[in-house]
Structure of Probable dual-specificity RNA methyltransferase RlmN:
Amino acid sequence: MQKRNIYDFTIEEWKSWLKEHQEQGYRAEQIYQWLYVNRVDSIDEMSNLPQSLRAKIAEEFEFQALHTLTEHRSQDGTVKFLFQLHDGHAIETVIMKHNYGNSVCVTTQVGCRMGCTFCASTLGGVARNLTPGEIVAQVVESQKLLDRTGERVSSIVVMGSGEPFDNYDATIQFIKIVNEDKGLKIGQRHITVSTSGIVPRIYDFADLKWQVGFAVSLHAPNEELRTRLMPINKKYPIKELMEACHYYINTTKRRITFEYALMGNVNDQDEHARELAKLIQGMKCHVNLIPVNYVPERVYTRTPRNQIFRFKKILEDSNINVTIRREQGGDIEAACGQLRAKHMDLEFRL
């Protein structure tokens, strides 16, 4: 029997599992304490559980360890892990240090099927989805590193490699687990999920009425350009995407962040800024401008600094709330997919 990842369950699911195995429900809180507070590495370490219960857990669950292939540290404090999964695949996780705390960027898929032409994550397509436990384990491993200096994970962004809404059920389960008060206690307002625009899932996510932050990777203000940059626009064009975004705002009463990667002479001209302002005018939203990361396999170049600020001012003149993302980890290739792509290329050449 294929054993499950021990991080896969919510506390309520542990209670149900315990009941099915004629065990007391309160043991679920003890299990969560060992997993997320004591952060043990084996079932045998759960010393206040009866040996018989530990044996039952071991029959069905295992610690599917994330093996650290590389751990890169930036001058700005950013840490990027390349983890190897139990089946040999590699994924990336990033710890970003801010003045308000430590944020962990987690991956939801091995690779990505979205095919965005400016992103390293899509190189080689998608190999498989991660389980909820494999996403949770990234946060646990990050917290173990921070334990050395007495710090904690204060926020999570689900913006690593892969499309979270292409692995929707696992992403939702992950949020429930890390949000649990008996475990990691990451509040919903300290979690942000990003999507490239899988429209049906935006409606599903809105209907949850959670307090989780929500971001949409937009990157273009019109259908023709967005389709060229992001193939998903063929299936879910901007018109449908905007309708879903309006539904999200009206249903949750929360704002959306539109991610917009600026690419030199592609989507960064004055007319693009004016088009973008018109597209989102009046919406409860915020625009995050992202100077594009250089990816050797891609052809895009970074927008000049003066044009970035010009683009920002055009949006601000239209009363759009806008910021420029502070670059972190540039010296350690911290952009999504860069380390994994290099690792895959090395394996291929070997």
